[in-house]
Amino acid sequence: MKESHLLTRLSAIILASLLSGTLAADVDDDFDDDKRFRAIEKNRIFRNFDRRITRLENAAMKTRAVDCVADPKALKNMELSVNTTYVLTGMCEGQIVVGAGLGTIGIEGDGRGYKDDGIFLPAGETDSDRVFAAIYGTNGVRLNLSSLVINADAYNSSGDLYISTVGAYRGAHVVLTDVDVIGGDEGLGAYNTGTFSVDAGVSVTGFRAAGLVANSASVVRVLAPTTVTGGDDQEGFNSEAVSAINGGVIRISGGGTLAPASGPGISSAQDTAAAVSAFRNGTIQVAGSIINGSVWSGESSAVNLRNVDQSGGNIDAFRNAVIRVRGGRVTGSDDDGISAGVFSVIRMDSTFVGNTGGFGSIDLYRYGGIDLRGATNLNGRDVNCDDLRETRIDNSVQGVGDITCSMP
Questions:
Q1: Is the dihedral of CA 24, 30, 32, 37 positive or negative?
Q2: At 109, is the secondary structure helix, strand, or coil?
Q3: What is the largest CA-CA distance in the chain?
């Protein structure tokens, strides 16, 4: 027992130091090659240590089988034990709460089929504020989920309550490997310093409002190619595939596909949907992904895109925000699809900017600015601005259309 407690404390200390040392890499906006290399190296070290810690913890953990074929509520009605891995057979009814004092909890499929084990929220609706997720970790617990399906597709929350299919709250660290996350208002929701680490074999699909959410100084790390795509024909009015808000940080370094939900009241054309959205000091970094939808950065937020392929929506920076694009291709929309305003800036380096219809532009307003360099190609897009002093285009930039500014 002493060994188990010591291991848990050691794991927490190592993780805390790694998080404190790597968060600077997450929020680093610079494109400097040396800084970028250090960020990649720190991320690799974090991932390796994380896996080593998991192996050490698993070696010291107890294992308990849970048969949800015989009793779907078996896991829900079970009192969880400290540092235990629960091996599920069948689909278990949620919600499952993994809270304080439990150390490390593992929940995994039995391996006898391919993702035929997991957790689901039954059909229902509540106004009691007691159902937050199909499963969530809270109060500093570490929760390892693997080889599972976690499904909240049948559950409809009340109008003032959002359901996360998987939640990480109040300092909990939730790790997903080989997990399909389906449905819910949100796929993965991290709040109040919660943390997600998303490893190989994970998909987040069918959500109604948001796929990945980092809110209130929470962190979401995506370390392997991951599909994050919303549901079709949804009844809501707003959707974001990836959303960082109130100091939240999301780092996607493994690639994949990002797309919001769709429905009668949700569309990029109506500015009610975005693939990437950072707001109120949020930070989002995306590398090597396909982005189907708008990219927004607002109210002192930062979005950094590297070697992405973006289409099907606008690119907007507003209210002291930054959007940086390095490499890859961005399209925005053909008409006024790229804009920066109210002391915001869009910086592009070595980027191909699409202009399919030939009438696209980059629009700057109220001291919005652009910084174009590194053989970026605008493909004939015009630049419209209030103040030419906020427009920086170096000699390597190609395909610049007309530049029209009200203040020369």
A1: positive
A2: strand
A3: 76
